[in-house]
Design brief:
- It is a single chain.
- The chain is an alpha/beta fold and 337 residues long.
- The chain folds into two domains: 22-123 and 246-298, Periplasmic binding protein-like II (D-Maltodextrin-Binding Protein, domain 2, 3-Layer(aba) Sandwich), CATH 3.40.190.10; 125-245 and 311-332, 3-Layer(aba) Sandwich (D-Maltodextrin-Binding Protein, domain 2).
- 34% of the residues lie in helices and 20% in strands.
- The protein has helices at residues 35-45, 58-67, 82-90, 132-138, 167-180, 182-193, 205-211, 222-230, 260-269, 273-279, 311-316, 318-329; strands at 5-8, 22-28, 49-55, 76-81, 94-95, 119-131, 158-161, 196-200, 217-221, 235-238, 246-254, 285-286.
- Strands 1, 2, 3, 4, 5, 6, 7, 8, 9, 10, 11 and 12 form a twelve-stranded mixed β-sheet that branches.
- Helix 1 links the parallel strand 2 (22-28) and strand 3.
- Helix 5 (167-180) packs across helix 6 (182-193).
- The protein is globular.
- Residues 1-19 have low confidence and may be disordered.
């Protein structure tokens, strides 16, 4: 989505609120289809707290939070890229808090400070969605690597997310620069750009387009790929051989919230087994180890394919990366609604 979508979601649990219900304004970049389910699961344990969602893509939510730095409107961020939360942390916009059960969270999937400024939920990772039917019509061979995507046969047949608006797009670009090095990374993106039909403002959209047969190849992320395949789309889910970029969906308390106790309650709940079960319906890599069950259509080797990701580097260089990317490639970005 490109327009801010504020969703006040009512569930059966909310019937117990009445006039004394405490409300939290929660900013998120979670997939819109998750919001009602996540809120209902939280309210099953905490019917006294009402969630008012404000949802958009990662880049838009990050920009909105930064714009509101001196007049915060959110109480909690539940489901935003860790790289974005590190930017907010550097601006002094997050309230450090050691959530109950923090010791169960893998150290790689939480802020390193004690108390931490943010805590992870699950990891989402880059994948390639390849429409086998459309690929066959065009005589395309399925790619197996990132390098393959620069082959001339794919000219005009690839869609990927814009990193300025999509967290998935940013994890792609930042991971290529980390894997290949600065000069080789930009050279790779120059070559890839020749084959790009459009850059979307959503991380889901490239896979949705591939699933619908609008393009044969969409660079997206693993949840959307598995969901599209489960819904019957004729796509192969390709994990490039070089490894895949990834980021964490993570949560934090916004400094200055007027509801600190309710905010802490939500952060506590966000790392419980009940919460992890909700995340695991789409994501195979959870912040709390030992709880994840296999996700249909995703390979068991997915977590092993994650590159060594330097979140601090990505966050510190985010502005410069996006400026350079926009200068080089923004001409192929789809129009914003």
């Amino acid at each position: 989505m490109t327009k801010m979508l504020a969703l006040a979601l009512a569930t059966s649990a909310l019937c117990a609120f009445g006039a004394k219900a405490e409300e939290l304004t929660v900013y998120t970049a979670l997939e819109a289809e998750f919001l009602e389910r996540y809120a209902a699961a939280f309210n099953a344990d905490h019917p006294e707290i009402r969630i008012n969602w404000v949802r958009d893509s990662t880049g838009v939510i990050t920009a909105k939070l930064l714009a509101e730095k001196n007049n915060p409107q959110a109480d909690v961020v539940w489901g935003l890229a860790a790289t974005s939360l590190l930017v907010l942390k550097a601006e002094g916009m997050l309230e450090p808090y050691a959530a109950k059960g923090l010791q169960t969270v893998d150290a790689r999937y939480r802020d390193a400070d004690n108390p931490p400024s943010w805590v992870g939920m699950d990891a989402w990772a880059a994948t390639i969605c390849f429409n086998t039917v459309e690929g066959a019509k065009l005589g395309l061979t399925a790619p197996t690597s990132w390098a393959d995507l620069t082959r001339p046969e794919y000219t005009g047949h690839i869609v990927m997310p814009n990193p300025a608006s999509s967290g998935t797009g940013f994890l792609d670009v930042s991971s290529w620069l980390q894997m290949m090095g600065n000069d080789a990374g930009w050279a790779y993106m120059d070559a890839l750009h020749n084959n790009i039909a459009a850059y979307t403002h959503s991380g889901s959209k490239p896979c949705k387009m591939a699933a619908a047969g609008e393009v044969p190849i969409g660079i997206s992320f693993e949840f959307r790929a598995a969901k599209s395949k489960a819904d019957g789309a004729p796509i192969d889910i390709i994990i490039p051989t070089e490894g895949i970029g990834w980021d964490l969906e993570a949560s934090a308390i916004v400094a200055g919230t007027d509801a600190p106790e309710a905010a802490q309650t939500l952060i506590d709940w966000s790392i419980t087994p009940a919460a992890m079960a909700q995340y695991n319906e789409g994501y195979a890599v959870l912040a709390v180890p030992g709880l994840a069950k296999p996700v249909k259509y995703l390979p068991d080797t997915l977590e092993a394919s994650l590159i060594k990701n330097d979140f601090e580097w990505a966050a510190n260089n985010r502005e410069a990366i996006l400026k350079e990317w926009s200068t080089r490639y923004d001409g192929k970005s789809e129009a914003r609604n």
